[in-house]
Specification:
The complex is a heterodimer of chains A (565) and B (382).
Chain A lengths: L2 H13 L13 H4 L8 H6 L25 H31 L1 H38 L2 H5 L8 E7 L5 H12 L8 E8 L4 H14 L5 E7 L10 H17 L9 E5 L5 E2 L3 H11 L6 E8 L9 H18 L11 E4 H6 L10 H12 L5 E10 L8 H16 L2 H13 L5 H26 L4 H5 L2 H4 L2 H30 L11 H8 L4 H22 L16
Parallel strand pairs in A: 1-2, 1-4, 2-3, 6-8
Antiparallel strand pairs in A: 4-7, 5-8, 6-7
Helix pairs in contact in A: 4-5, 4-15, 4-16, 4-21, 5-11, 5-19, 7-8, 13-15, 14-21, 15-16, 16-21, 19-20
Chain B lengths: L11 H27 L1 E4 L6 E12 L5 E4 L2 E2 L9 E8 L1 E8 L6 E7 L4 E6 L7 E5 L2 E2 L5 E4 L13 E2 L3 E4 L8 E2 L1 H11 L8 H14 L6 H4 L3 E3 L2 E6 L2 E6 L11 E3 L3 H8 L1 H12 L6 E3 L2 E3 L2 E3 L9 E4 L6 E6 L2 E6 L8 E6 L3 E5 L4 E5 L2 E6 L7
Parallel strand pairs in B: 2-8, 9-12, 11-13
Antiparallel strand pairs in B: 1-2, 2-5, 3-4, 3-6, 6-7, 9-28, 10-11, 10-14, 15-16, 16-17, 17-21, 18-20, 19-20, 22-23, 23-24, 24-25, 26-27, 27-28
Helix pairs in contact in B: 5-6
Classes of the chains: A alpha/beta (565), B alpha+beta (382).
């Protein structure tokens, strides 16, 4: 390929309009490509009234989802940002192979350094998990209702939104029953079952049945139906929630004149089953935090609703995800919202309810809030659990595929790095140190997620196989695998901590399962090196590569099963 | 009831402190680990602790039932890869390696070990007594070989060997109860073929010269000679001598063909006078020139030890390009091409009145009209 053609190819990739990559632009975008700002019809509609929005949230590009929604220099900048994570990960992986071939001594020293780093990182993160576990246990023992009583809290409403696609009736019922078990005045709850029109009449019918059976227990109960094929939207949880919030504003908040500041919104995955004191715990944190309207509240997701049903592979992945969230609970300045979380209605209203055009909407909503509030928005960890489903399917292969797809969707959260960086370049009101720190931390997170397991468990051995003959004859070449193996064994010690904590968070054993399964639940942790590669690194690399090539992903709904909690 | 949770979240200061401690650990550990894996060790032998540089030895063995000794000290068996030993923490200098096992011949070599470098070696241990598997012309119903003899059935048939295969000896065969042994027919065919290698080195050389004289002048000599090759190793007869020649890529030359670019006396001391002499000889040669690989001088050919006897037959040892089977005047030997210090040469079948054929997987012998396979590993007896 000539240099000119290569440059042309790079230029086309940067522009995001290379044909062979099959980038599909919504037809309407053609109308806006010659303008200097943004454009989806949803955004255009929102432009009708932006007076309630924060100043930065009024920008036309505030809710940009991908480069193709922009034009001109902004589009090129955003496209470049979409390319960077994938390009960086591939550079690291290919660079490791090249170094192993051409500079094996350097590669060997790097692997030793990386293995030591991994051991220390394991110790560091295990420390966080262990501490949060202690705090989580403590929080679960507290009677939060008593703590809340010293405040004047009766005027607060909890708005709970369950966006869902086709789900079994039982899953919806368990979620709503969980609310009924909550130690909070149910009349101060606004419950929304947010159905998708494309899910069909049966799925919407389930919500209606739930409304008939349980709706009268709550202050307000809405069943919303998100229209299918709304232009400018990406079908998924984000757009559904966005639509539901709009309906709530019209049908409840405005109608009953409820002050925005008196509503705390919880956006829950439909398999979320709350613990009885969740709303009191949430309210206590809301009432005691420095600025509740500039804070998002993050519980610990325990994927344990169906833990006994799930295969070992699924359990390991579920618990690993929980552990990661427990770590983030102890370092909130580095975290964003994830999955089910809560935030004040006022904050959401000020940004126009988040985005309807992204895959990773759960984290994006936090970045929207951070950017719109000029960096003055924080995540407040609740260290209080909510229960969700581990990913399973009728067959093991189906489970493997579902876990892979779920993690690919989660790791597609790398699109948020592009969003953050883009707006951090635009919004100079956010302190520079905070901007740089977040960009670096998030970038390192997404990069290490993809590269670390592959470097550690596969490419760590590359110099031994690919190195020069001169290298093969050295003590270094022979000692390297021994050293790396020993360091990894030490690092695996962290799994002991994982196994202990995991057992303590496991729901009581149903009688149909033998006690022997407890042993399996301990031994299962030896699968971590494999799960790290297959369900973290590979889906992450897949997601980053798709974004890099402009083959944007859609929202894949993780199939849920009947709750057996 | 307290008004707030008693356990606070992990403070930023505490996290940062812990992080910095780990950073310090990393900074201290990294050079220590790099130096260790490169061969540096702390020496506590003297009153003052000092840092010494070490090398290693990597030795592979064909047999699992052997013990490895370094400077008369037994090396513990490795947990994984049981046929390979990696011995670390060896100081600079010459070290004596011994590999031995019960019923096996001993392999001995004195090898130089350099700091930071791992010296490689491949040991082999042939049985002390020949083990054979008779190949009879007929088999009985239970698959045993049947030998029909004229005299007493109690007279031993294979006197030189410890027979491992089951067979029976009878005076008179009962044709109806016996069947033809197809392996016997295969073996007979094998010996019926007069291969180039079945002749002596002298005869073979004469044949090659004759071939050269009959080919057109434009044809290269090498095009008409069929050498015995295994992988990238070729056996080349030169007069009464036999050499092993590396014909592969120079960068992949086996380590034992090469010597560090050092003074001749040092090479003679470390690898043997014969190695130094061969290097000097090949330095001046146009047919077998020296080449340099990674600052080492590499020979093209290594002369094999024929124990001052005539070579009657030669072939690569089955499935090996490092070992050669030599039929000498007083028996059949296996020798290694690696001539550092010396070549270990082990007798695997004594005598001068037998014929031998080596296939890709087996060594067959014909003696006194009987055929058998010579086993090079002691079979496990159930």
């Amino acid at each position: 390929m000539s240099t000119a053609r290569l440059l042309l190819l790079v230029s086309l990739v940067l522009k995001g309009n290379i044909n062979f990559l099959k980038v599909n632009y919504p037809p309407k975008l053609a109308l806006f490509n010659n303008q200097n700002a943004v454009y989806s019809q949803v955004h255009i509609m929102e432009e009708q009234d932006k007076s309630h929005l924060l100043p930065y949230a009024r920008r036309a590009d505030f809710k940009v989802g991908r480069a193709t929604e922009l034009s001109g220099r902004d589009r090129r900048l955003y496209r470049l940002l979409e390319i960077i994570p994938g390009a960086l990960s591939w550079t690291i992986l290919v660079g490791m192979i090249m170094a192993s071939i051409y500079a094996p001594f350097f590669a060997a020293y790097f692997i030793i350094a990386f293995s030591i780093y991994w051991v220390l990182k394991t110790i560091f993160l295990s420390y966080h998990v262990r501490y949060n576990w202690k705090r989580l246990k403590h929080h679960m023992k507290i009677d939060w209702q008593v703590l809340v009583r010293r405040f004047n809290y009766e005027h607060f409403y909890h708005l709970i939104i369950f966006p869902y696609y086709p789900e079994p009736y039982e899953v919806l019922e368990e979620a709503v029953k969980g609310l009924l078990n909550a130690k909070y005045d149910h009349k101060k709850m606004i419950v929304v079952l947010a159905a998708e029109e494309r899910a069909g009449a049966e799925a919407i019918g389930y919500a209606k049945r739930i409304e008939e059976n349980y709706g009268h227990h709550f202050g307000h109960f809405l069943v919303t139906t998100h229209p299918a094929n709304t232009p400018g939207e990406l079908a998924g949880k984000g757009s559904n929630t966005h639509h539901a919030l709009g309906v709530v504003q019209r049908e409840v908040v405005a109608k009953y004149n409820i002050p925005h500041k008196d509503i705390i919104t919880s956006i829950f995955d439909v398999d979320t089953v709350i613990y009885p004191d969740y709303f009191n715990c949430l309210l206590w944190h809301f009432l005691t935090v420095a600025d509740p309207y500039k804070s998002a509240f993050q519980p610990v997701p325990l994927f344990n609703n169906n833990l006994w049903e799930a295969p070992a592979l699924s359990r390991v992945m579920a618990m690993s995800s929980t552990f990661w969230q427990m770590i983030m609970q102890e370092r909130p300045e580095k975290s964003a919202t994830f999955s089910s979380h809560s935030v004040s209605y006022q904050a959401l209203y000020e940004i126009g309810y988040g985005q309807a055009n992204v895959v990773s909407e759960d984290s994006r909503i936090y970045w929207n809030l951070l950017v719109a509030n000029d960096g003055k928005f924080d995540v407040v960890p609740l260290s209080y659990p909510i229960s969700m489903d581990a990913t399973i399917a009728p067959t093991l292969w189906g489970t493997i595929k579902n876990i892979y797809k779920q993690h690919r969707r989660w790791t597609y959260g790398v699109e948020n790095w592009c969003y953050i960086t883009y707006h951090f370049i635009k919004n100079k009101k956010i302190p520079l140190k905070r901007r740089l720190s977040i960009i670096a931390l998030q970038g390192e997170g997404y990069s290490s997620l993809v590269t670390n397991p592959i470097l550690l468990f596969i490419l760590g051995w590359a110099p031994i196989f690919l190195g020069t003959r001169e290298f093969h004859e050295t003590v270094l070449s022979y000692e390297l695998p021994i050293m790396v193996r020993n360091l990894l064994i030490i690092a695996m010690g962290g799994l002991v901590v994982s196994a202990i904590i995991s057992l303590s968070l496991t729901p009581p054993r149903p009688e149909k399962y033998p006690r022997f399964k407890y042993l399996v639940m301990v031994v299962q942790w030896i699968m971590v090196p494999i799960t790290m590669i297959v369900f973290s690194a590979l889906p992450g690399l897949d997601a980053q590569t798709r974004l890099m090539l402009g083959k944007y992903m859609g929202f894949w709904v993780t199939p849920k099963r009947v709750n057996v909690k | 009831m307290p008004i707030e949770p008693e356990i606070k979240s992990l403070s930023y200061g505490r996290r940062k402190g812990f992080f910095l401690v780990l950073v310090v650990v990393f900074i201290l550990a990294l050079p220590a680990f790099i130096f260790y894996t490169s061969g540096y060790r702390l020496n506590f032998d003297n009153e003052e602790t000092s840092i010494v540089t070490t090398g290693g030895v990597y030795i592979t063995t064909d047999n699992l039932g052997v013990d490895v000794y370094l400077d008369e000290e037994k090396i513990e068996k490795p947990r994984l890869f049981r046929s390979a030993y990696y011995i670390q923490n060896i100081e600079n200098g010459l070290h004596r390696l011994v590999v031995q096992g019960e019923g096996l011949q001993t392999w001995v070599k004195v090898l130089p070990v350099d700091s930071y470098i791992v010296t490689e070696a491949a040991a082999f241990n042939m049985p002390e007594l020949p083990h054979i598997r008779p190949i009879a012309s007929r088999l009985n119903l239970s698959g045993q070989g049947v030998y029909v003899v004229a005299g007493s059935t109690s007279t031993p048939l294979f006197t030189k060997a410890t027979t491992t295969g089951n067979f029976v000896v009878v005076n008179r065969a009962t044709p109806a109860s016996l069947r033809v042994n197809s392996e016997y027919e295969y073996t007979v065919d094998l010996f019926a073929t007069t291969t180039a290698t079945s002749t002596s080195v002298f005869n073979r050389l004469e044949e090659e010269i004759e071939k050269l004289s009959t080919v057109p002048a434009s044809t290269t000599a090498t095009a008409s000679i069929s050498y015995i090759e295994q992988g990238n190793m070729r056996l080349v007869p030169r007069g009464e001598e036999l050499s092993a020649r590396w014909i592969g890529d120079g960068s992949a030359t086996p380590h034992y063909f090469c010597a560090p670019a050092q003074a001749s006396s040092t090479i003679a001391f470390r690898l043997g006078m014969h190695v130094m002499l061969q290097l000097e000889e090949q330095r001046l040669s146009t047919t077998t020139p020296l080449h340099t690989e990674n600052n080492r001088l590499c020979r093209t050919e290594i002369r094999l030890d024929r124990k001052w006897q005539k070579i009657k037959y030669y072939e690569f040892f089955p499935q090996s390009s490092d070992l050669v089977v030599l039929r000498l005047e007083d028996g059949l030997y296996v020798t290694e091409i690696d001539d550092r210090a010396w070549q270990n040469t082990q007798l695997i079948y004594p005598g001068d009145k037998f014929e031998v054929r080596v296939t890709d997987t087996n060594i067959y012998i014909k003696e006194d009209g009987m055929y058998f396979e010579l086993l090079t590993e002691i079979p496990e007896i159930n």
